[in-house]
Design goal:
- The protein is mostly helical and about 475 residues long.
- Helix content is about 65%, strand content about 5%.
Length: about 475
């Protein structure tokens, strides 16, 4: 062993190479290096300010940590695989550089509260980046929806033709799904933005630490409330993993629709060449691989959530080494979601929709049947009876290869005397679309209202997100002075 572990004093002999390799988290938690250094910088400053260590020692530590940060950002910092994690590496390198003062950095701190602090800072940044990308995708969808408020297409339930809707209305449904995703992330942000530093191993510390100071220096809203809960808590990681999984489920649905819509059977849209691939044997193929991979990679985020839930489900308070397995899942979900968001927005932006094909598809499936039943209700017939009358008319049309709107007045009257020429005009696809004026409906004026509402909410979320990004940038700038 060329290097010592932070806990080596208790042991007469060092751990075996197998144990070191098995327990090492360095391949995963290297990603936390930046957060570890800034967390240590805040801790060192606090130690000096409250007099736990000498002010000059605090300044030596701060100077050394700032240089570590510079070296890390420039790619000039080499970590030792012989040390078990990124936190041990940073303290070891710092001590090598600044000497005796480096040994005082860990005063009034445990790796338990240190790791939780680093991890929370990572998830905090991951949320802000994820929300920014979600908002970008929403705007891509809105931009297309504004152009398609009058484009008629079939709406589906059970993958069967149901009622006529507009393409703009359909795209706005995805916007509002992603809006909920953005709100879940922003809501989770408020719960996680509490500082663990000062919680120690599990019971706090006897040193006169100023937890409010370190919390403020690192841009947290306040310190956590209970030290034991603090070091045990991975709710913030679970919530982040859930939010990623939920968002990926929505993206998977969007990807599946694109696979269907660009198929020869649907031909509602043409996949942009930039987001498709070909076949090694079939020259004619244009495969929607990006959409399929978005759909497939939802399984990664779902699996990560299940893995993290399973890690945490049986742990007694407080910290257990099982929790070392938390970060890989969160990192993976973050990478999966952000990469898919980066692809799906431009893919929807560049889709070519076949409006005529969508309109022709509405001719099949009796999408206007509900409107004919509602028409009978408006003329005094109870809905259940109207449902039965129109059902019989549909059955007649199926047997005779006809459509409801192609029936003659005499044929309609054979099902009910309440039906006439106005009834035929009532069930044109355009009339059906215009008529759905209830709040949230598919009528063009209602879709325009939805677009305006969504834009206002997105702008509010973007302002909140950008404001927090700017605030944290100012926090880091101040900390590095």
């Amino acid at each position: 062993m060329a290097e010592k572990q932070l806990w080596s004093g208790r042991f007469a002999e060092g751990p075996s190479e197998m144990t070191l390799s098995f327990t090492s988290s360095l391949p995963v938690d290297t990603r936390l290096a930046w957060y570890d250094i800034v967390g240590s910088l805040a801790h060192a400053r606090m130690l000096g300010e409250v007099g736990i260590i000498q002010k000059d020692e605090s300044e030596i530590l701060a100077s050394g940590l700032k240089q570590l940060l510079t070296d890390l950002e420039s790619g000039d910092l080499d970590l030792s695989p012989e040390l078990e994690d990124v936190h041990t590496n940073m303290e070891h390198i710092l001590t090598q550089r600044v000497g005796e003062a480096g040994k005082r950095l860990h005063t009034a701190r445990s790796r338990n509260d240190q790791v939780s602090t680093d991890f929370r800072m990572f998830v905090r940044d991951a949320i802000l980046e994820t929300v920014t990308l979600l908002l970008d995708v929403q705007y891509e969808l809105i931009d297309r929806a504004e152009k398609e408020t009058g484009t008629i297409m079939p709406g589906f339930t059970h993958m069967q033709h149901a009622q006529p809707v507009s393409l703009g209305f359909h795209l706005m449904a995805h916007v509002f799904r992603l809006q909920r995703d953005a709100e879940r992330f922003l809501d989770a942000y408020k719960r996680l933005n509490q500082c663990p530093l000062g919680a120690g191993a599990l019971g706090g510390t006897g040193h006169p630490v100023d937890r409010e100071m370190t919390s403020a220096l690192l841009g947290f809203d306040r310190p956590t409330d209970n030290a034991m809960d603090t070091v045990s808590d991975r709710d913030f990681a679970l919530e982040f993993a859930y939010d990623c999984a939920q968002a990926m489920v929505h993206l998977s649905s969007m990807g599946e629709e694109l696979v269907l819509w660009t198929s020869p059977e649907f031909r509602f849209a043409e996949m942009p060449d930039a987001f498709a691939t070909g076949s090694s044997i079939m020259p004619q193929k244009k495969n929607p691989d990006v959409a399929e991979l978005v759909r497939g990679r939802s399984s990664i985020a779902i699996g990560n959530l299940m893995q993290l839930l399973t890690v945490m489900k049986g742990l007694p308070l407080s910290y257990n080494r099982d929790m070392q397995e938390d970060k890989g899942s969160a990192f993976s979900s973050y990478e999966t979601l952000t990469s898919c968001l980066s692809m799906i927005g431009p893919m929807y932006r560049d889709l070519s929709f076949d409006r005529e094909r969508m309109a022709r598809a509405c001719a099949d499936g009796f999408l206007n049947a509900t409107d004919l039943a509602d028409h009978l209700v408006q003329r005094g017939m109870p809905f259940r009876q109207a449902h039965e009358v129109v059902g019989a008319a549909v059955q007649y049309c199926v047997k005779n290869g006809m459509r409801l709107e192609s029936l003659s007045v005499e044929e309609l009257k054979g099902f009910s005397d309440l039906l006439d020429q106005d009834s035929i005009d009532h069930i044109s696809l355009e009339a059906c679309l215009r008529r759905r004026t209830s709040a949230g409906g598919t009528a063009p004026e209602r879709v325009k209202e939805q677009i305006a509402s969504a834009k206002a909410i997105i702008d509010s979320h973007r302002s909140e997100c950008n404001g927090e990004i700017v605030r944290l940038d100012e926090v880091w700038e101040e900390l590095r002075k």
